[in-house]
């Protein structure tokens, strides 16, 4: 499906107004291009093998007829659960969180890494909630250790030997192209015998000044190796690792996060410079008890254009996911715009006035995207 030639670059983005914030988000590019799948989730845009700065007038499928579509998975809140903590893992079915992450990296002590690998392996193979989430098209994610740590290969060996694989693999502290190629080589080799399954989603972490300044080259390489994997891999998004970034540049972390304002906005700009609908996941709020400030920071991230946020405590989930969801009044506006447009089309009219605003094709697309995304996350419709 081609985008209309009348739609400009701004039409690639979805406006979400939380009632407190308005933001542009790359969620919409995939919603606008491909509608929703039979599972009720929107189909993500297929990936082209050329440079990512393709014209918005053509879909990626036009450039690469061998590419395939895969469903879009919302990650408004990405919550870390230590992979060696059986009690916390057992509570995951009670959490209404978009992306639970079984953690091998920072949340697990060095002398507990093997316990984490074994428990995550067992969880993937035997936990009913894993099967249920995957059946419903919901995320099951695992974060491995960084390749610099020397532990990543062991993580992958254990993880990829499980009968049931995670939906998403999170790869921290990406610094260079060789890491990406090495990762892709291991993954494609291990996944080759599982052809026909949905691609393994990849989410990368940018956590240093070097990585931030090399970010566009890193993402181009990541997209290239995913394109060359014959649908075994798909790059879904990028995470800003604020704490490691602050340590790298010698900054002191604060609730206000002024020390990473430039980094967050630069990070976001690079992510959104690709017309691939990559998700951009914002920083962790370091004081998990201060929900008011969490709400402020989440709404700020939504205004900036982030698609989701990292969380470290169950109490943070609802606040964050609300901030990254359409507000009821914005959803009502979008539904009424779509209905009014349908009526005017039957009457042979193009642009029309709605609530003292002129509605044309770009605004209609924004309204359709809001309605589609609300359905995607299960938000009640009027």
Provide an overview of this structure.
By secondary structure, the chain is an alpha/beta fold. The chain contains 15 helices and 14 strands. It has helices at residues 27-34, 60-63, 86-90, 113-126, 128-135, 152-159, 177-191, 209-213, 215-227, 242-249, 261-272, 291-304, 314-323, 328-346, 361-376; strands at 14-17, 22-25, 43-44, 70-71, 77-82, 99-103, 141-143, 168-171, 200-206, 233-240, 279-282, 308-311, 352-354, 357-359. An eight-stranded parallel β-barrel has the order 5-6-7-8-9-10-11-12, surrounded by five helices. Helix 7 (177-191) runs parallel beside helix 9 and helix 12 packs parallel to helix 13 (314-323). The longest helix is centred in the C-terminal third of the chain and has 19 residues, at 328-346. The chain is globular, with a radius of gyration of 20 Å. Mean pLDDT is 83; it is low at 1-68.
Q: Widest sheet: strand order? A: 5-6-7-8-9-10-11-12
> For the report, how would you describe the main beta sheet?
8 strands, parallel, barrel
Spatial gap, N to C terminus:
29 Å
Order of helices and strands: EEHEHEEHEHHEHEHEHHEHHEHEHHEEH
DSSP, total strands: 14
> Can you tell me the overall shape?
globular
Average pLDDT, all residues: 83
Number of helices: 15
Strand content range: 15-25%
Question: Strand pairing plus helix content: what structural class?
Answer: alpha/beta
- Proportion of residues in helical segments: 40-55%
Unreliable runs, pLDDT <50, ≥5 residues?
1-68
Provide the gyration radius in Å: 20 Å
């Amino acid at each position: 499906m081609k985008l209309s030639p009348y739609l400009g670059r701004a039409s690639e983005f979805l406006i979400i107004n939380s009632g407190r914030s308005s933001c542009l988000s790359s969620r919409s590019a995939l919603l606008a291009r491909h509608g929703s799948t039979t599972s009720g989730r929107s189909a993500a845009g297929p990936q082209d093998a050329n440079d990512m700065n393709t014209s918005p007038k053509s879909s990626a499928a036009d450039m690469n007829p061998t590419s395939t579509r895969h469903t879009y998975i919302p990650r408004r809140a990405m919550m870390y659960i230590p992979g060696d903590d059986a009690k916390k893992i057992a509570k995951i079915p009670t959490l209404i969180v978009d992306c639970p992450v079984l953690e091998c990296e920072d949340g697990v002590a060095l002398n507990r890494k093997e316990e984490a690998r074994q428990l995550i392996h067992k969880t993937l193979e035997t936990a009913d909630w894993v099967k249920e989430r995957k059946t419903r098209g919901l995320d099951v994610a695992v974060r491995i250790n960084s390749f610099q740590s020397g532990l990543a290969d062991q993580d992958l060996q254990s993880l990829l030997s499980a009968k049931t694989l995670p939906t998403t693999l999170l790869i921290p502290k990406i610094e260079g192209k060789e890491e990406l190629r090495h990762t892709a080589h291991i993954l494609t080799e291990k996944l080759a015998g599982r052809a026909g399954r949905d691609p393994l989603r990849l989410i990368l972490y940018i956590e240093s000044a070097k990585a931030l300044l090399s970010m566009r080259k890193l993402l181009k390489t990541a997209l290239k190796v995913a394109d060359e994997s014959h649908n075994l891999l798909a790059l879904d998004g990028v995470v800003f690792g604020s704490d490691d970034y602050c340590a790298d540049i010698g900054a002191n972390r604060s609730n206000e996060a002024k020390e990473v304002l430039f980094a967050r906005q630069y990070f976001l700009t690079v992510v959104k410079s690709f017309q691939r609908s990559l998700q951009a996941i914002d920083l962790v709020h370091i004081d998990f008890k201060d929900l008011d400030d969490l709400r402020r920071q989440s709404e700020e991230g939504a205004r900036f254009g982030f698609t989701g946020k990292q969380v470290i405590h169950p109490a943070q989930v609802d606040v964050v996911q609300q901030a990254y969801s359409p507000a009821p009044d914005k959803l009502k506006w979008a539904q009424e715009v779509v209905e009014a447009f349908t009526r005017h089309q039957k009457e042979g009219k193009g642009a029309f006035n709605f609530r003292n605003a002129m509605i044309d094709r770009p605004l209609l697309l924004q309204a359709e995207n809001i309605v589609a995304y609300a359905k995607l996350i299960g938000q009640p419709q009027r």
